[in-house]
Amino acid sequence: MAATAIVPEGLLRWPWKVSLVLLALTGFGAAVLHSAAGGSWEPYAAKHLMRFGVFLVMALVMSRFNDTVYRFMAYPAYVVLVFLLVVVEAIGFTGGGSQRWIDLGFMQLQPSELMKPAIVIVLARFFATLPPGMVGTLRGIAPVAILLGVPCSLVLMQPDLGTTLAIVASGAVIVFMAGAPLKWFLVTGGVALAALPFAYQFALSPYQQRRVTTFLDPASDPLGKGYQITQSKIAIGSGGLTGKGFGEGSQSHLAYLPEAHTDFIFATMAEEWGVMGGVFVLMCYALILRWALRVAGRAPHRFGRLMAVGMGFTIFFYAAVNMLMVMGFAPVVGIPLPFMSHGGSSMMTVMICIGSLMAVDHWGKTQSRRRY
Amino acid sequence: MFRRRKPRASSPPPTGVSLQNAFDRRAVILGSMQAGVGLLLVGRMAYLGVAENERWEVLSESNRVNLALIPPRRGAIVDRYGTPLAANRADFRVDLIPERMGDARERSLDMLAKVLKLSDTEMTDLRDRIEQSTGFQTVEVASNLDYDRFAAISVRLPDMPGVVAQRGYTRNYPTGPAVGHLLGYVGTADREEYEAEGKDPLLVTPGFKIGKDGLEQQFEQRLRGEPGARRTEVTASGRIVRELDTREDTPGAPLRLTIDAALQDYAARRLGPESGAVVVMDTVTGDLLAMASMPSFDPNSFSDGIGRVEYSMLNENERKPLLDKTLRSLYPPGSTVKPGVAMALMKAGIDPDESVYCGGGLQVGNRYFRCWKRGGHGQVDMAKGIYQSCDTYFYYFAQRSGMEPITAMLKRLGMGQEYPLPFIDQFYGTVPGPEWLKEKYGREWQAYDTVNSTIGQGYMLISPLQQCVMAARIAMGREVMPRIVQSDDVPDFQSLGFPQENIDYVRQAMSDVVNGPGTAGRARLPIDDVLLAGKTGTAQVVGLNYSDGKSGTWKYRDHGHFMCFAPFDNPRYACAVTIQHGGGSGAAYPVARDVLTFLYDPDKALEMLHAFERQWGGTAQQRLSAQYRAAAAAAGETLPPGGGSAPGTVAAARRGEPIQGSAETRASDSYFNASAQDDGSTTGGANPRGGATSSTATPAPTPAPSPTSSPTAAPTAGTTD
Hints:
The structure holds two protein chains of two kinds.
Chain A: H1 2-6, H2 9-13, H3 16-36, H4 45-63, H5 67-95, E1 102-103, E2 108-109, H6 111-129, H7 138-156, H8 161-177, H9 182-203, H10 206-216, H11 225-239, H12 250-253, H13 265-298, H14 302-326, H15 344-366
Antiparallel strand pairs in A: 1-2
Chain B: H1 16-51, H2 53-64, E1 65-70, E2 77-78, E3 84-96, H3 105-116, H4 120-132, E4 139-145, H5 147-156, E5 163-172, H6 180-183, E6 186-187, H7 191-196, E7 210-211, H8 214-218, H9 220-224, E8 228-234, E9 240-247, E10 255-256, H10 261-270, E11 276-282, E12 288-294, H11 299-303, H12 308-316, H13 325-328, H14 338-347, E13 356-358, E14 361-364, E15 367-370, E16 378-380, H15 382-387, H16 391-401, H17 403-412, H18 434-441, H19 447-454, H20 464-476, H21 500-515, E17 533-539, E18 559-566, E19 573-579, H22 589-600, H23 602-616, H24 620-634, H25 647-654, H26 669-682, H27 688-697, H28 714-720
Parallel strand pairs in B: 2-10
Antiparallel strand pairs in B: 1-8, 2-3, 3-4, 3-5, 6-7, 8-9, 11-12, 11-19, 13-16, 14-15, 17-18, 18-19
Helix pairs in contact in B: 10-22, 14-16, 14-17, 14-21, 16-19, 22-23, 27-28
């Protein structure tokens, strides 16, 4: 073809469309951060764009690796992260408080964040090698329970409910997509529902319990956690259809909105851009997630399919829970909004997901399709 | 049916193909689920932002805009001539709201102490007030600040959350203790008051004060006014970003009293160091001209949030400076009931000219009742019974009339009654009678009860206000009703139905008490052709075996009473004086004399007062501050000069200027100037007025600095020294 003659083949295979969507979304995020900083590139917006650039390069590099590399790395990476989680736990124990990161000097490494894509890869790897006949058996599912249970309990001990839920959700989606019988999900769902009150009572720390009660009744704690939800709803609701205008959000600028540049950035955005801005953001996510599902569908093998679905779902989970939270449909859990919230760890996680998706996309374009 | 379980149709084990199909199906489910969540989010957002938009916009505005109330200027309380008894003085003030101080409390308090130069005592008082406050309640840190200190606080406000600095108004009572009981004082609202008014935010607005006692409390709604408002844009932490707009406050309506400010001040000061009360009223209109109760407190310091030293000084004083003695203290009236009893006797048909022999007492049943004069009065008719205050006369004739007519008469004359006055609490005392005794103590009335009652002892109790009303009613023969709020209409009091000759008879007898051969010759007014009519009263507090009533332990001494009216033949003013434990009526009637003299000739009355005050150590206000300073020194604390009293009034007194509403403002200028010289020397400083004149006399333009008139010292030299 003519285009092939001019443009190198590698560039053609580059997922242009989704890259543009990502750029648009991140750029929009940077604009909101610019406003949240009181109309300044510092300290959020510039860093946000810079990180995006760096991690995009990382994602591109990731997308060039062959699937054998991913398959090979799955278990060692998982083991290293579990080890790091234990280390974090130990540091927190000796430090006399909860700690979630390891200080590497140039950055704070949060192993629980990296565990989200890692669990996707390791489970995809597991199911890819599991004989089809064993998918529906308990012997087939037992290792999954262990692979999922160990990091989850470590993260829950931190305590970090949001990340735990993210890991469990990604894991569950892979098990689901791997073809596990539906009744398992129904039974587990039923048991989980029945166990909820006990979990609330025994598994959650008091501050997590408070978040749940506050979620159920924000008015019960109007100056504490309920305050955050209420202020967030005020920001979104007062934005109206078209918003108050760029840089005009009173809720964020007068500091009524908590965490206006991280967890509640959607509210900051909605106050200034209104429902239109929100629809734009949702459209961007829809395009990204649709691309992720298509990548999964095009994947040449089971490992790629499961990995792509899991990565896409991880992004979805972040975005959905965050937006449900700021709109008062989910409890306040510390989950940032991908591509928009300020923060290095979460940006790295979602860009690892993007990189992995790009890799699967690349395999789909270069390898011949296999049945299994 | 139960025999064999139906083998379940188990699906064949999955193969690679079936898993791929399952994946494809489930991918659709997953995608739909994600799309569903997306639609839910869009819907929720549209609901919040479009359907509920108005509601959230209101909330957002109420976040953004802070409506700070501006406390309304409180209505002034003025006397019958319009002289302010309570007014507002503009000042700079600093308050704090403990709830908003957060973690920075200690740091902020330290900074306040440093910048405002608060002493340790003041800091302890401040901490006490913070402890006692309910958190959201405003606590006053300091008022009457000079501009420099106010500015110093203002620039540091961002570092001190919960601290409010503003320009405001403080309540000022120019004559201080003279009106303390009458007007009460103002203070920040406490929790009950806040809740009683439905948590009106005005009540917890910094700088806002409500009436706490006396008329300030009774006329709260009228004096309060409407608050103004200032709209500002604020951050969540309360920092003001910019001002939006301001609505001015509507000051409260002034309250005009029947009180004569100068007379009130004079009466209070004339009581001197005694514990007692003076009530003066206009017998024609019922206007209360003065209601003084001493010792008193300075409402200025109460309104600023009184310090612990000052409060305990007042609270522990046995003479009860916190009690309004005109309304809320009751005394046995002693012989002052005798004119009223005489009226009852005449009404019961006893001829006033009929006489009885007084040989120093009377045998009633198996008990001998003594007349106060052991030697006896000889032959006594009603007039002599009054002007010589002969007990025997009343012992004798009261037994003849019986108690009922006397009880009824005394009640009609105002004893045991509560008047329609806007005071929170009037004690109405007791007029005993057979029915009352039966009900209260369940025993029959005896002859000796009548005997005791006719000389105002036994169960009989009266307040100084009632005593004044009684004097007015006897003088006029009308049901004179006291009133405190000024009104232009002259009331037409109902006649009590006394024959004019009876009224004239008692008036004459009471005049003879003072101007004739009576018991209070020294009470004669130093005014030509104004004759005072009165009645002395001495009420025993304890039996003669404890104390002779004249000397010894203060609280065992007799109460002294004097009730009077003038002029005797055409009464205009009625007055009652009670000196608690004064040792007898001799302590009371000179006060009444001087107070009434002040009404006719202020200069002459002031001359006498100033002579007394030189002995006592200054005006009531000066003595109160001296007392406070002594108490503070005893408590081991040092005070800034002028502490314990309203700085404005003290400063005015030092400058030798007349305090508005004080007795001196009704005197002629020449007299006042002369006294200013005296006051200057007694307060221990250089003559202030002289200093001022000499500094203006020196040629002003000379730039040569001299130690006495450096540019900064010059304007204040006249006032601070």
